[in-house]
Request: fold
Amino acid sequence: MTRVALHRRERSLRDPRHVSRAGYSLVELMVALTAGTLVVASTYYVGAASARHFQEQQRIGQTQNGVRLAMDILQRDLARAGYLGTANSLTDQRCLAPAVELQAIEFQNNVDNAEIPNADLNRVSADRLRLVGSYASNDAFFATGLDAAGTTIFLQTAWQAFRRNFGLPPIDTAATGNFATTFAAGRMLRIRTQAGNVFYGTIGSASAGAASVTFAPALPIGGVCVGGLADGASVSVLSRFEYRVDDGGAFESTALNPAGSDFVEGQRTYLIRREITFGAAPTVVAGTDQVILENAVDFNLDFTFDQEVNRALPISLERLGGAASAPLLGSVAAGAAGAAPERVRSAIISLSARTADQDPTFRYLARADGDPLTRFKVTVNAAYPGAARVRSLTSEVQLANLR
Reply:
């Protein structure tokens, strides 16, 4: 090929009319758009499902942690029942009956079921528990004597237990000081003389400056029951606590009533710990309401009792629950016949709580006898499908202070 021919050929190749104009067809564009839409939608769906699953697992974890913390508080309080006090004041060595009989544990079976929404549908229940023991102090104190009226007892300020609790004299005399808060009005004094006689008196007032506590009724001065104006007697202070399930309406303080924050038609329930006064019809001590578990849906107690009355024979343990335990752990103050808390050896606690809301993807299934409590129907309203998830714990607490 000549040089002229090659030149012509190069010019023809550079001519724009010979350049290819190929591109995407409409069908190809639609296929690409559809595929892209599917990828984006799938990614969004997977992301949204993962977020919902993460949030649900967060709620389940919070519920499980709440049940565990509440169980820890219950275990500590139960193990302390009767500490520096009595299992049953009717069994004490005494020559003067107290104005109010005491027992370390009182139990009422299923009395708060109505506080739980759909309790029958979900096959759950709520017991009530009352405990008496030395919860305000770890120590007993020694007395130097009584006043002439037998209504005021003076404590030894040189005793190590006194100084461990209240410091070296002069001690804090403020109303918020340790002495005043420990010997708070309405609590109970347990006075045990060197002869072993036991007396109980309701605290009226306490004087930190004089290291003295005033109580009623008066002790009989001048007889063999007290002896030596109770010099050397041991003195402990007893408190009484109640555990109950409630919807918030029975909170002692209206400021603590969280009913307005309910997520599902006001159906929240709480396990409450509160200090109460002594007597058959107790009142709540102001400022002592504590919510130890939100969304509590089941609170049940069983007990093991020593059924062998003869102490010379080996113990015979039997587990009793529900109504069977009620006569043995009924309130002595209320005059329950046959109450014998001194025979209880352990308490078995079953505690459950639900997640804050129902999960619409978590189907409710009716619970049969023997089935574990895993789901809870808060409301049967069709606008709230599904069920809440439930987490539970069971623990046995040995009650060594009652033996």
